[in-house]
Amino acid sequence: MVRVSGKAMEMKRICWLIVAALLGACSPAPDFTDGAGKKVSLADLGGKPLLVNYFAPWCAPCLREMPLLATLHQEGQIRVIAINYDPASPAELTELA
């Protein structure tokens, strides 16, 4: 087994952070579809803090936090995007909402 110095480990971490940042910068910004089927881009959401919430319809804690997130969004202080992990039809998501 080879022992690596603290400085070498730190340089390795810095290099990986740079690689990750460059790869992230090369990716196109994702587009989303809202509940009405309308395309929404991240550029459309500028101007306010954005909270991205990943959830699943079978996740009880996820469902408990949804009303609070909806209230925060309706108050207008932040924007909230809820991203569903599981494949679901728009009708199923509307019923869940």
Quick summary:
By secondary structure, the protein is of the alpha+beta class. The chain contains three helices and four strands, in the order αβββαβα.
Please compute the radius of gyration using only Cα atoms: 19 Å
Question: Largest sheet, if any?
Answer: 2 strands, antiparallel
Q: Taking all residues together, what is the mean pLDDT? A: 79
The sequence of SSEs as H and E is HEEEHEH
Total of helices:
3
Residue runs with pLDDT of under 50 for 5 or more positions: none
Overall geometric form:
elongated
The separation of the N and C termini measures 55 Å
Spatial order of strands in the largest sheet? 1-2
Instruction: Assign the structural class, choosing from mainly alpha, mainly beta, alpha/beta, alpha+beta, or little secondary structure.
Output: alpha+beta
How many strand units?
Answer: 4
Q: What portion of residues is helical? A: 40-55%
Beta-strand percentage range: 15-25%
List its traits.
45% helix; 97 residues; alpha+beta; elongated; single chain
Structural features, described:
The strands form 2 sheets. The chain has a two-stranded antiparallel sheet. It has a two-stranded parallel sheet with strand order 3-4. It contains 3 helices and 4 strands. The mean pLDDT is 79. With 97 residues, the protein is an alpha+beta fold. The protein starts with 5 loop residues before the first helix and ends with a helix.
